[in-house]
């Protein structure tokens, strides 16, 4: 696309369309997720262990279907058609959540729609620019902001409606958000790039294959990150349950809705990312660059410390509710750990990909999210069997184990 084409905010107008489409899709996803565990335990009266397993299975499937969906998009559907179908199916799934007998069907429907939508929309961002356009890299930063704006607003809007007026209304609001994203995408279609075939990345004469050492390194990182996500994914599961039963949410005469705390993670992502990137850039310019595996290990340790904080608060409180500002501090530390490990891990997978296999390698990252989410569901099922302080200490131990694994992998990665 030409750099002289009409722009908004210095970028192709299509970026604004994709930004808003993505923002509303994230609003729908995180809005529904903020209500899910409460809906299962309070409305459907499911046991906590069963609800945790269902939560883990759903989040796992939401990240497994894009692996299959991406192949379908490339082979049969095309990007525009896939986004329209995926958004429509997800919206239907959200509205199906308002009918209790359709609960499991609704979860499956949302996951299937996400399989077409999630891997497709980001690729259209790159299609807006020529490969040598310097704005291309910044475009993904802008796009990522949309993810966190949607994730920040969703628990506040859908969570408040769900808590005050009924869970079904909160789910319906999430569906309305998905429809808003679809309508924006359709209305802005004229600003989006035309369909084009994917460019072959591999150079003539270069083997597009994985060597054994690379496969073993990626596998090792995958296992370490799976262990990490067993603890990481608890924020929407057992930590959400604890924010209801174990936290004093009074702020003067007001009671903070429990779902609002789910907005803290995306809020801190938006606040922390710019200074953290600037810090890493200064260190790189000074010739002090940290190895990816060591940075990831540090992130896992930070998250371990966040869960140790919760364990200490439970033990010191001796049964009394914890003041809500401590939960805010937990989310700040939690997010800092996330920013050290997850974006770095994704970048590491992209960097180690052989020529012509970048999509396959990055697709493997979704498999890690899938396995980590399943593992998190199994770990979360232990919540009602342990003292809550012991459970949080277990999560801290899992994150610390992940850090140890990454530290041991560092030497091999450097080679």
From TrEMBL:
CDD domains cross-referenced by the UniProt entry = MFS_DtpA_like (cd17346)
Q: How does it sit in the membrane?
A: Multi-pass membrane protein
Keywords assigned by UniProt, alphabetized: Cell membrane, Membrane, Peptide transport, Protein transport, Transmembrane, Transmembrane helix, Transport
Q: Which InterPro entries match?
A: Dipep/tripep_permease, MFS_dom, MFS_trans_sf, MFS_Transporters, POT_fam, PTR2_symporter_CS
Task: Provide the Major facilitator superfamily (MFS) profile domain boundaries.
Answer: 14-414
Q: Which organism is it from?
A: Duganella aquatilis
Q: Which residues cross the membrane?
A: 53-73, 103-121, 142-162, 168-187, 215-232, 260-280, 292-317, 323-350, 362-383, 389-409
Q: What protein does this entry describe?
A: MFS transporter
Compartments reported by the entry: Cell membrane; Membrane
- PANTHER family named in the record: PROTON-DEPENDENT OLIGOPEPTIDE FAMILY TRANSPORT PROTEIN (PTHR23517:SF15), RESISTANCE PROTEIN MDTM, PUTATIVE-RELATED-RELATED (PTHR23517)
**Main location group:** membrane
Tell me a GO cellular component: plasma membrane
Q: Which family does it belong to?
A: Belongs to the major facilitator superfamily. Proton-dependent oligopeptide transporter (POT/PTR) (TC 2.A.17) family.
Annotated GO MF terms: peptide transmembrane transporter activity
Asked if the Swiss-Prot or TrEMBL record annotates the protein with the keyword Transit peptide, the reply is: no
A GO BP annotation = oligopeptide transport
């Amino acid at each position: 696309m030409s750099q002289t084409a009409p722009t908004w905010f210095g970028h192709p107008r299509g970026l604004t369309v994709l930004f808003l489409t993505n923002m509303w899709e994230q609003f729908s996803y995180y809005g529904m997720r903020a209500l899910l565990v409460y809906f299962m335990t309070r409305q459907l009266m499911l046991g906590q262990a069963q609800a945790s397993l269902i939560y883990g299975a759903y989040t796992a499937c939401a990240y497994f279907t894009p692996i299959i969906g991406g192949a379908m998009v490339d082979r049969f559907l095309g990007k525009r058609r896939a986004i329209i179908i995926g958004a429509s199916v997800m919206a239907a799934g959200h509205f199906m959540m308002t009918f209790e007998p359709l609960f499991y069907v609704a979860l499956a429907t949302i996951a299937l729609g996400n399989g077409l939508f999630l891997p497709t929309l980001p690729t259209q961002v790159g299609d807006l620019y020529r490969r040598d356009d310097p704005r291309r890299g910044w475009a993904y930063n802008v796009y990522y902001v949309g993810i966190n704006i949607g994730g920040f607003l969703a628990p506040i809007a859908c969570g408040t409606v769900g808590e005050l007026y009924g869970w079904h209304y909160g789910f319906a609001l999430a569906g309305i958000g998905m429809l808003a994203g679809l309508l924006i995408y359709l209305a802005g279609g004229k600003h989006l790039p035309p369909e084009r075939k994917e460019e072959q990345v591999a150079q003539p004469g270069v083997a597009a294959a994985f060597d054994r050492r690379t496969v073993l390194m990626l596998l090792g990182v995958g296992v370490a990150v799976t262990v990490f996500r067993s603890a990481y994914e608890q924020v929407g599961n057992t930590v959400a349950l604890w924010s209801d039963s174990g936290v004093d949410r009074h702020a003067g005469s007001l009671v903070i809705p429990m779902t609002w705390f789910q907005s803290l993670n995306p809020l801190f992502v938006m606040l922390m990312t710019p200074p953290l990137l600037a810090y890493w850039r200064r260190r790189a310019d000074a010739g002090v660059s940290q190895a990816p595996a060591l940075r990831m290990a540090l992130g896992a340790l930070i998250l371990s410390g966040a869960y140790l904080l919760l364990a200490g608060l439970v033990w010191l409180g001796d049964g009394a509710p914890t003041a809500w500002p401590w939960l805010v501090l937990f989310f700040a530390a939690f997010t800092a750990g996330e920013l050290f490990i997850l974006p770095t891990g994704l970048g590491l997978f992209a960097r180690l990909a052989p020529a012509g296999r970048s999509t396959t390698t990055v697709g493997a990252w979704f498999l890690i999210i899938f396995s980590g989410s399943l593992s998190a569901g199994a770990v979360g099922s232990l919540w009602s069997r342990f003292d809550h302080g012991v459970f949080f200490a277990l999560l801290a131990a899992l994150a610390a184990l992940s850090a140890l694994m990454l530290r041991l992998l560092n030497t091999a990665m450097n080679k």
